[in-house]
Amino acid sequence: MEVRAFLRMKIQMLAARAGRLASITPTAVGIRPQDWSYAPSPNHFKAANQRLAKIDREVMKRLNHVQQTWATAPIPRVLADIALVERELDRARRAFGLFFEIFGQRGSAFAPSLDAYDAIAADCYTAIHQAAPRLFQGSLLKPVTYMEHGYSPATMRRGVVLSRLLGEPNPFPIIRIPWDRDNPWQAVFLHEVAHNLQADLGIWQENRQAVLHRVLRGTTDPALTQTYSRWHKEIFADLAALLLGGPAAAWGMAIFLANPSTRTLTYRPGGAHPTAYLRVLILAEMLRRMRFEAESNHLKRVWQGLYQPATSRRLPARLLQTADRLIPKVVDEIAYQTRQNLGQRALADIIPFTTQDQKWIKAGAKTLVTGKVPTHLPPRHLVSASAYALSSGKVAPNKISQLVTAHLANSNDPPTLTSIATQEALAA
């Protein structure tokens, strides 16, 4: 009887924890009236609450079972059933914590920067909607950004199963921004958005198979083929970032990848990222294909002035010897060959970037230098204009950041008082 009484007390404590994390609201995460314009949409809260409610139903189902059987079931079985309740409570706690962390930052000093990044991410999707209407199936919740520690931005794609959430799928794209990278000229952010575009376009496997077959036909080398097929996701995101932002995105990525040669020239077996030295040569080749040959040559000169792979033994000889021949093939395959899931169009067709776009970006940079925002530029191109304005040395970095962030944060449609109130009522 003492053992059963002990188990009853444990189950009562479990019951006291159940149901407490079944919903999340703007008010609960600390979003104040003055923060409403930066808040995620009611649909983002709705998606989060649907996920939390699903987990909560499983918590209650398992809790009800153990409440009905604890007095008579074998004790080892009761302990196992209690552990399953604990598992679902842990899942609820992790999911609630993730959403709380992401949404709650919209009540902080970083809210305008996050909202600005949201606008840039949404515009990347808009670019495809405009060039290839109806390519995306149905309406998609835009990515939501949040700040976290870490060296570089990173993304959690829509629907991907997260180990952090004990296997729960992610309901909408989430992009992490390191605390010190909240400025609007970060080309690597376009790279992270591109990962989500690739997943939402449904060309992940199609792209991988195409790269695998193209490299194998060109080399008959299984090792090289496996290497480039492992790299396909990162190369896709790099090339898409250039189509979203133009030459400035290539320079931004090169700046991000510029490290001591011991890192830049090191090949990592099994790694998903191309060796940094070759990665920038891939960017230069993409610029050439985009008809920015002068920029391409300039980037190669700078990069090869920084690094001399012939003096290093960190790159496999075969990988380096075939780079000049293989890189153009891989760029062509990923960016310029048609895909069935793109409606027999290529990546460069659904994210067009022209020399006129580059002229407008350069003109926009000059406008930023004068202390004004070039309102004619779409948000994704403001990333590049900001980078050019920064490189001019004629305006303080914080001034550019303040101008562009304020403009982009105000470009989103803010939730209305009615929508906030509705979302609070739904969650309650």
Architecture overview:
- With 428 residues, the protein is mainly alpha-helical.
- The protein has a domain at 2-23 and 41-107.
- The protein is built from 19 helices and five strands.
- The protein has helices spanning 2-17, 42-69, 75-104, 111-131, 187-201, 204-219, 222-230, 232-245, 247-257, 261-264, 276-289, 293-306, 317-321, 323-336, 347-350, 355-369, 379-392, 397-409, 417-427, and strands at residues 144-148, 154-156, 161-162, 168-169, 174-178.
- A three-stranded mixed sheet has the order 1-5-2. It has a two-stranded antiparallel sheet with strand order 3-4.
- Helix 4 (111-131) crosses helix 5 (187-201), helix 9 packs across helix 17 and helix 17 runs antiparallel to helix 18 (397-409).
- The longest helix has 30 residues, at 75-104.
- The radius of gyration is 25 Å and the shape is globular.
User: Unreliable segments (pLDDT under 50, ≥5 consecutive)?
Assistant: 414-424
Q: What integer is the average pLDDT?
A: 92
Kindly provide the radius of gyration, computed on alpha-carbon positions and rounded to a whole number of angstroms.
25 Å
Portion of residues in beta strands equals: under 5%
Strand-and-helix sequence, N→C?
Answer: HHHHEEEEEHHHHHHHHHHHHHHH
- Residues in helices, as a percent range: 55-70%
Number of strands: 5
Helix and strand content put the structural class at mainly alpha
**Strand order, largest beta sheet:** 1-5-2
Quickly count the helices: 19
Give a short account of the largest sheet. Answer: 3 strands, mixed
Q: What is the molecular shape?
A: globular
Give the termini separation: 40 Å
